[in-house]
Amino acid sequence: MWSLVAGSRVGPASAVWLTLIPGVLLVLPATGLQASFLLAGFPVAIAVLLLVRRPAGSRTVAALLFAGVAVRMATIPGGTSDVLAVTAAADARLLSGLDPWGVGYAASWPPGAPFPYGPVALLWYLPFGPDLRQVEMIASLLVLGLLAARGRPLGLAVYALAPVLIIAASDGSNDTSAGLLLLAALLAAKRSPVAGAVGLAVAAAFKPYALAWVPALGIWGGAGALAAGAAASALLWGPALLVSGVGPVLDSLRMATAVHAEPSLTVARVVEQLLHARVSRLAFDALALAAGALAALGTLPLARTWGGFLGAGVAVFGITLYCGYWASVTYLAAIAPILCWELDELAGLAWRRVRWPGDPIGRLESALEQRRPLAA
Can you give the residue ranges of every domain in the chain? Predict the structure, then answer.
């Protein structure tokens, strides 16, 4: 990307800002031309675009951070997903001494959806009462703050202004929190595969799609990491399974696959539109599992490096979820934090990191590199 602008008349300090333009433009269709968006989001996007001619520095990072916060505030209240409504009902059932799994909840739209997530999801939201969207907004703002503190403008711009991430912060889904947990787990795995395995166990006990990185973890971290992840999973799931049993949890997973009557955002949807005929849910659920398994096997040789390990999990994640019968666009909020964390490096732009006074993040990363250098 730098090679495309290196020969232009702008200097190096200004040229790096050109990489932010696509991220800024992503904000335009974020919420439609709603009054709240026009009042908060659109002027912020214009202000950020006006900074293109300025060198990338702390003020540009602050502007992106402010833009990300402003457009998220402009989308409140959201509410197109019933995931958090069901989770609140499951927590209420848990507090009443009842099993949260294996039942359909009247709080869903339409009524009858189960709670198909793990015990960490119950505990994660338990202290926050019936309206859990505040948790997702806090998680989104926390990721924004971490990206800003790290000083990588391109990844920050994408996370701050990508419409799907803005919407996911308040629409009632739980993928923003899942993304925060995955970010912590995968960054831990970058330096300590055992710690990363424990983190992945926590993330998978929140939402099972975090298991997408487990096959590659066997190559990146070896048998020791897999054993640590298995032990952590046993500790996290053991009490719940001991009290509830395996049957209700499996029933919740089965019921969750039957909730959506029409395919969405998947291969099944494409095939249905091409054939102008209904497709089999069972067939495409089986296809998703088979495609995910093939993706896991095919990407194992890549997992000996950090980038390969990360990419292998992303491939398994995307292929498994979007080759099936139904998927949500907000699933992307789960992988966005780690991708945005690494985006500047992947684009070859790590050299222009913004350094805050004292550079605490840079010193921390340098210390980690000295103590636990990457394997490759």
Answer: 11-350
